[in-house]
Amino acid sequence: MKVSIITPTYNSQATIGDTVKSVVAQSHADIEHIIVDGASQDQTLQLAKSFGHTGPFICEKDMGIYDAMNKGIQMATGDIIGILNSDDFYSHTHAIDHVVHTFKKHNKDSVYSDLLYVDTEDTSKVLRTWVAGKFHRRHFLRGWMPPHPTFFVRREVYQKFGDFNLDLKSSADYELLLRLLFVHKISVEYLPGILVHMRAGGQSNRSVFNRLAAHREDYHAWKLNGLSPKWYTLLMKPTRKIQQFMVKSSSVLSMPTQSPAN
User: Fold this and answer.
1) Are 9 and 38 in contact (CB under 8 A)?
2) Whole-prediction pTM
3) Domain assignment present for 236
4) Structural domain tally of the chain?
5) Distance (Å, whole) CA 165 – CA 157
6) 34 closest CA partner among 51, 9, 10, 12
7) 223 touches 58 (CB < 8 A)
8) Does residue 170 fall inside a structural domain?
9) Domain span including residue 166
10) Residue 112: inside a domain, yes or no?
11) Residue 83's beta-bridge partner residues?
12) What is the pLDDT of residues 87-114, one digit of tens each?
């Protein structure tokens, strides 16, 4: 299976090296790494090339990160598509092999896994551990969502059900996952183990104002799909992050670092 990985960037010279190196190092033979850059003013693209990026790229002004992701989706030619942000990186060299093996073994529309939040400067320092667990549709009513950087989906799913809604500024990934998994009920398989390391510091969590704005957008995501969440749904969503600080990363089942059997 051909895998398209989309990386949106903007002035990402401090972190793009780790992202590109983790993709270049993957053992899976058929990867298309698409970088969609919003006309960076620093050395992002030059550094990406110096670390081995040879895939397609777009460099032009955009309307934000979700617009960049949509451009990448429209450009992608892979059987399955994943998003890897410019401050994220894969946990080991066989990560994509495990994703592809899971698609083949279970014949599902989508696959997701677990994620570690790491310190911005010292990426060996684990801050939070996001263990997604097995999928149950009802979990969305309890504030659940899978870690978006670990979520891979067949390209035809985007073609059928659409991509990121640009009316949302910080919750477009939540709305997309809600739409695909809860509304349209695409098939999905959970791949246990850490797939992605993400540097901490998301936009929606930088202030109380941003958190309130994200809360309103989360509610709008349900309304856009003709749904009404339970009274507790959106209250439980941020509290799930508190639980992530309590999970010992050493207790999480590590994904095998060997290529899976065919």
Assistant:
1) yes
2) 0.92
3) yes
4) 1
5) 15
6) 9
7) no
8) yes
9) 3-251
10) yes
11) 6
12) 999 999 999 999 999 999 999 999 999 9
